[in-house]
Design a protein that fits this description.
The chain has a domain at 2-67 and 102-113: 2-Layer Sandwich (hypothetical protein PF0899 fold), CATH 3.30.2320.50. The chain contains two helices and six strands, in the order H-E-H-E-E-E-E-E. The protein has helices at residues 2-20, 41-52, and strands at 25-34, 61-67, 69-73, 79-82, 97-101, 105-113. Bound molecules: zinc ion. Zinc ion binds at residues 73, 75-76, 78, 89, 91-92, 94.
């Protein structure tokens, strides 16, 4: 399962971040998943929750922001959201579309709890 290895690498990245930044506890991990990333958000969520059981991240919330596909027309310059994977400009019908968003697969933020200062 593809998502399991991705969840594992997100988990390891978060642990490394906690160590580097000396974070006591991360309460939420937020990630961005683009529609073209090939990742099923539900499966990723499920995998992450399974991994963090009995780990330093147990109880940590996992929030996925799904990013739709955004394209920019190379003919008329119009930027638009690509629906149903139709890579065709809604204004001039050109098929020359540059994908500007939709491949994201990244940690967007970490929410920290119990820092004890500031
Ligand atoms: Zn166009």
């Amino acid at each position: 399962m593809h998502e399991l290895s991705i969840a594992q690498s997100i988990y390891e990245t978060v642990l490394r971040e906690m160590e580097i930044r000396e974070l006591a506890e991360v309460s939420t991990v937020g990630v961005r998943v683009g529609a073209l990333s090939g990742v099923m958000a539900d499966a990723l969520q499920f995998s992450f929750e399974a991994i963090v059981i009995d780990s330093p991240l147990a109880g940590c919330k996992f929030t996925i922001e799904e990013i739709p596909v955004h394209g920019s027309c190379q003919s008329c310059g119009k930027a638009f959201v690509v629906k149903d994977f139709l890579f065709c400009c809604p204004i001039c019908q050109s098929g020359q579309i540059e994908v500007t968003q939709g491949y994201e697969l990244e940690i967007a933020y970490l929410e920290v709890r119990g820092k004890g200062e500031g």
